[in-house]
Amino acid sequence: MLDFRDSNAGHQAEEHGTRTVTVRALLDLDEVRSGQPEVLSGEDALDAPVRWVHIADSERVRPLLEGGELVLSTGMSFRASPGAAGRFLDDLEKAGAAGAVIELVDAQGRPDTDAVAVLRGAAAGRGLPVVVLTRTIKFVRVTQVAHRLLVGEQLARLERGRRVHEVFTQLSLEGASEQRIVDRTAELLAAAVVLEDVAHRVLAFNPAGMDAGELLRDWAGRSRHVGYQKETGRRAGTGDWLQTPVGVRDRRWGRLVVPGELPDDADAAQVLERAGQALTLARMAGRDEQDLLQQAQAGLMHDLRQPHALDEREAVTRAQALGLEPSAFYVPIVVRLDRLPGEDPTGLQLRERALLEELVATVRQARRSMLAVGLHSGSFGALLGVPARQLEDGLLERIFGQLAEGREAGDAGARGGGEGAATWTVGVGRSSSSLLEAAAGLDAATQVADIAATLEIRRRRYYRFADVRLRGLLAALRTDARVRAFAEAELGPLLEEQDAGALDFLELYLRHGGNKSSVARTGYLSRPALYARVARLQERLGVSLDDAESRAALHVALLWHRMRGQVPGEEPAHAPESVDQG
């Protein structure tokens, strides 16, 4: 005799707030066990759910059934005929019955061994659970208990549905984030849940105790093999993922999936569908798909820049799930926008967003991928994947050249890269094969972008530290009191008198390395006039301009002074009121 209580599946225990009534669960009732049940066939299907319990002794039972019933019978009309018994079981299978429990007892209440043999032969090889009872039981008691369980299950599902509805309604009213909705869904299902966009990039996820790296491993590749469903459900059987589309009809922007098996698909589908609706409402309330992707990328970039927050394996796995393809190297990039005259913070933010969208499109056209995040108002950072270090400069030149040339002259976004016309500057840090090291390089890229933004003429599409050289060093030290003291000591008399003409002449002289012929030609000065001006300047400064070390010191001081007035929020040590061209 089969001991039904040895199984952990199909029992009457609650599953996430609902009860599952199965054939196995009903066979485990005391009322049925007293009949000494023996399973003749379909043992693998004992965990099939039961919709109702029906008593039938007629050989032609099919018209009485709708599917999912457990049929109780004494077999009076077919117990003596193998053919009739076979037809009875055929009808049950065709009607989609959950199973059959047949009591075969003679008039004296003893097992009808001949009838059992007939039924055993008719049941052989069938997938339908067929159970024989050899002791008399009260069918009415079985139906009463079973129906009480079934009604209880239905009421539990209704209560569960009400509770799920309240949870997601409250989340919508509170304006909950997508991540919070996904977290609550995973909690209700006790299973991992992933929200992805139509490009299979992970926008939010909750592993529900599962290893995050394992959950997101090759996510895009695995997800592509799971076709989209227009409605909540699985595409092809239980081996597929349970999913629900997210977005308004005909404008789907993603889907919510449970990439694993579940104890009750019907219950989980109800939760998943309500979660999908809550996510759709969240977007309709003011979020869009790109914002959500940026939000997800920003969260990852924040973690990447925190010491010891992630290891390299987890960082790469999460980045790939967000669309960053595996690459040999990753380049840290920072784009800094100049503030236009009279521009308010909102206008700057709109330009920043438009430029970022153009950069994303340009990188996609170049068949590369990147992660991007806003750093502060007017600048954003990115990690760009490159296949090889020797291809890095060519790829950057192509991307930012195309970006600059694609902007219409005179537009509010303005053109970048031309002489004096650039309204944004690109700083590039050192590439690395480590994603974490590349993310740490965003700080250096930010410094380069800030320094390059002070250049009077920006001829390059992008800048590295090697491109800004001495100016870069001084920019990094511009707030150092010691550098200020040095510069003011070197240029002291000229700064005190605010002699812009003398400063301009000194700059011209230093630019030509003290070559008097070149200075006279460029400055349209006669030789006597040039020598006289040099002599006066040397007297005021107290140094010889023929001395290379003196010229170097003055060049550093003058460069620092000029840069002070080109950095937002800073002024030259002594700003001249007028320029003497004499």
TrEMBL record:
Which stretches make up the Purine catabolism PurC-like domain? 26-149
- Limits of the PucR C-terminal helix-turn-helix domain: 503-559
Pfam families linked to this entry: GGDEF_2, HTH_30, PucR
Domain spans labelled CdaR GGDEF-like: 311-450
Q: Which domain of life is it from?
A: Bacteria
* Similarity remark: Belongs to the CdaR family.
Name of the protein: PucR family transcriptional regulator
Organism per entry: Arthrobacter mobilis
